[in-house]
Every structure is written in C-alpha cells, then in structure tokens.
Specification:
Radius of gyration of chain B: 13 Å
Shape of chain B: globular
Number of strands of chain B: 11
Strand content of chain A: over 45%
Order of helices and strands of chain B: EEEEEEEEEEE
Number of strands of chain A: 11
Helix content of chain A: under 10%
Distance between the termini of chain B: 36 Å
Strand content of chain B: over 45%
Oligomer: heterodimer
Order of helices and strands of chain A: EEEEEEEEEEE
Largest sheet of chain A: 6 strands, mixed
Structural class of chain A: mainly beta
Largest sheet of chain B: 7 strands, mixed
Chain lengths: ~110, ~120
Amino acid sequence: GQQVMQIPQYQHVQEGEDFTTYCNSSTTLSNIQWYKQRPGGHPVFLIQLVKSGEVKKQKRLTFQFGEAKKNSSLHITATQTTDVGTYFCAGPSRGSTLGRLYFGRGTQLTVWP
Amino acid sequence: NAGVTQTPKFQVLKTGQSMTLQCAQDMNHEYMSWYRQDPGMGLRLIHYSVGAGITDQGEVPNGYNVSRSTTEDFPLRLLSAAPSQTSVYFCASSYSFTALQETQYFGPGTRLLVL
C-alpha cells in the first residue's frame, strides 16, 4: 500500500494567503520528494529532502523534513494564481531498496484572485 | 533532448479491446515506470523497470503487461481493456535504478477512456 499519507486533499485560498500541505508516514523515510502538477499537465519535480530536520526554500516555497523523518510539509507564503495545481509528496516503498516510489494522493490548491 | 514522450495522447477503447501505450526517453535513463492517475487517488504505480530486460510490479499491476527490450522504450500493454482502466497514464524515468533518490521525469500522459 501507499507509504505516505497526504492532507488536506483540497485547499482553497484567497490570493495572498498562505498554504500548507502535509505528508505523514508510519515508518521512517530515507528521503521524500515533492512534485507539482498544473491542471491538465504532468507532475514536475520540485525538491528532495534527505536529512532529518532539513529545511529548504525555493522563493515563496518552504519544504521541511521532520526530525524523525516520518513527516514533511510544503508551505507557500502569499499564494499567487500561478501556484494553482496539485502538490504531491513521494517516498520510497516499505522495505525495498529498488524501484518502488509511491506518491501521496496530493493536495489540490485553488487560488482565488 | 525530447525527454519522455508518450503516445497516443488520447485513446478511446471498447471493453475487451487491446492496445499498447508507448513510452520512450532519450536521456539514457535506467529506470522507467508507469503510473495511473484517477481523481482523488493520486499517482499509483503500475509497473517499473530498473533496466533493459528487468521489470517488476507496482501496487496496481493487474490487467497490464510490460516489457523492456531497450533502454529507451517501456511500453504498457492492456490485453483486454475494462472500464475500470479508464484513467490518465503517466510514464516516468530517472537516471539511476535506485529511483528512491532520483528526480522522476514524467511524460505528458495518455488519457484513456474505455467504454
């Protein structure tokens, strides 16, 4: 089954508001990746987190990996209409060293102008 | 580089028909995979390959076959299409067979409708 659970499934915000999506795993993850999918498009890689407690920033986006490496978050400050899309986290399968990368169900972000 | 390409972009099938979804990459990537995306279900792994001649099942493999005869191509075959296979299919690839820490490059997707 899926390795990571992602919440919320949907988020509607007014432009300028902040947005956060969360990924949680029952087991320790070696790493976690984040992807963005624009409406009608394909997933595009955003970032990868590997170290415990790691925080990475990309302009208005802040990515965190929990100290126990069981959770991660993506925070967008002052959302813009260009942030619209679905954000996915992805983590490795349980007990496997090869091949299986599982995606969360995603958080669909809508930004109202 | 064209990256990851998929054909066709759209396809309508009748129940019981067979077809092959094509996926190709020109980045010399070892790892290739197929996902299906359904509303509210995210991306679910169907099959993957860690190199030519090596394939394995993902979490939803039933009804799908794959083979990997070359590094570049990874076709997905539906032997007898069912309405439950209506979905958007994405092919992805990454440089190394250790996909767990590699950026996945996705193709543009194939939208399949099975009537």
